[in-house]
Write a structure and sequence with these properties.
Four Helix Bundle (Hemerythrin (Met), subunit A), disordered C terminus, CYB561/CYBRD1-like
């Protein structure tokens, strides 16, 4: 049995991926450090419940979502089905963690009697979460559920990629809005005096922006896309024949 041909990995790609992971892990660690040093830490049944929100969002809607987008760049020669499942699972984990973050902030507001959904950050956050859930649901229906036709998958693929990158970009922007809002609420006018918390949070904001930029750069390099494998093309043609009655010879 002949070995499967493997596509070569672009020379610079592993370095950019490694850099993105360094940025992502650093921003998650720095989020935890910010909450621990200046916000008292994290706990569910206390006044610290709110702090669950930014940590969950940093892990779920920023780091894990970014990694899910990179799956097709990192795993270039693995079976397409395996790569799809990993891509979908990472998005599921991100969605669940983000949901915990949403529950935390709404529950905290309810206990304190605070108003909900009045700020630009909260509006953008709900928009991002709804779009993310819909994107995952539609993506599962088209690419993992066996009932979708080949032509539907082909027509939707470009939109799926576009909305995935757009939702990720919106997630980063919403996180930056939330970070600025949290600093202004606590520091107020002292923010302009280069308070240590403000400086640390500003560095965190830069890490968020850099992580988002590196991930989007990797995604938009056309020569870094996962190449189609010969067996994937054959399977796609067989699936089209079975679902639509097309004959390969008629193409």
């Amino acid at each position: 049995m002949e070995g499967r041909a493997t596509a070569s990995t672009p020379a610079a790609l592993p370095y950019y991926v490694a850099f993105s992971q360094l940025l992502g892990l650093t921003l998650v660690a720095m989020t935890g450090a910010w909450l621990g040093l200046y916000r008292g830490g994290i706990a569910w049944e206390s006044n610290l419940q709110f702090n669950v929100h930014p940590l969950c969002m940093a892990i779920g809607l920023i780091f894990l979502q970014g990694d899910a987008l990179l799956v097709y760049r990192v795993f270039r020669n693995e079976a397409k089905r395996t790569t799809k499942v990993l891509h979908g699972l990472l998005h599921v984990f991100a969605l669940i963690i983000a949901l915990v973050g949403l529950v935390a902030v709404f529950d905290y507001h309810r206990k304190k009697g605070y108003a909900d959904l009045y700020s630009l950050h909260s509006w953008c956050g709900i928009l991002v979460f709804v779009l993310y859930f819909v994107q995952w649901l539609v993506g599962f229906s088209f690419f993992l559920f066996p009932g979708a036709s080949f032509s539907l998958r082909s027509r939707y693929r470009a939109s799926h990629v576009f909305f995935g990158a757009t939702i990720f970009l919106l997630s980063v922007g919403t996180a930056l809005l939330g970070l600025k809002e949290a600093l202004l609420f606590k520091l107020g006018a002292k923010y302009s005096l280069f308070e240590p918390e403000g400086v640390l949070a500003n560095v965190l904001g830069l890490l968020l922006a850099c992580f988002g930029g590196v991930v989007l750069y990797i995604l938009t390099r056309p020569d870094w896309k996962r190449p189609s494998q010969a067996e994937e093309q054959a399977l796609s043609m067989d699936f089209k024949t079975l679902t639509e009655g097309d004959s390969p010879s008629s193409q």
